[in-house]
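Memo subject: From amino acid sequence to C-alpha cells
Keywords: amino acid chain, backbone geometry, C-alpha cells, three-dimensional fold.
Body of memo: The sequence and its C-alpha cells, given next.
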Amino acid sequence: MNMETAVRELVDRQAITELIYGYCECFDRNDPNGVAELFMPDAIIDYNPDTANITGSELANTIAIGLRDTFAATSHHVSNVMITFENSNTAHSLCYIDAWHRYHNRAPDGFLWGRYLNHYKRTESGWRITSLLLQAAGTIDFHRERMHGIGRG
C-alpha cells in the first residue's frame, strides 16, 4: 500500500468512526432528522426480528415516533470499532454498544449490550450508512422481548 492510499484509508476510517458516533449522539439528543442524514436514502435499519425494518424514506419519521413516544432519555456508548473496506467506496463495520434507556411509561430502565453491523457507501457529501443491523448479547428490562443474537450458542 502506498502512502497516499494509506493516508486515504486512515481518513476514511476516522470518518466512518465519527459516523457511528454521530448516530449515537443524534439518537441520544432526540434528533431524528440528524439520524436520518447519516443514512443513504434507500438505507435499511434492522433493530430486531419482530418489527419491520425501517427504510430510508421512513427513517426520520419512524425514529422520531420512537424517540418521542418511547424514550425519556438514552445513552449509547460505542467501542471496539472494526472497519473493513470492500473497495475505495464501500465498507462495513462491527462495533460494540452499551446502551441505557429511560422510558416515558416509567418502566424500569432498560439496558442493552450488543453490537452494530453497518455497511457504508462514499457519497459526494462523505460516507453514509446503507444498512444497520442491531445484535444483542444481553439485555435487562429492555423494551423488546426478542433481539437478533450475536451468534453465540
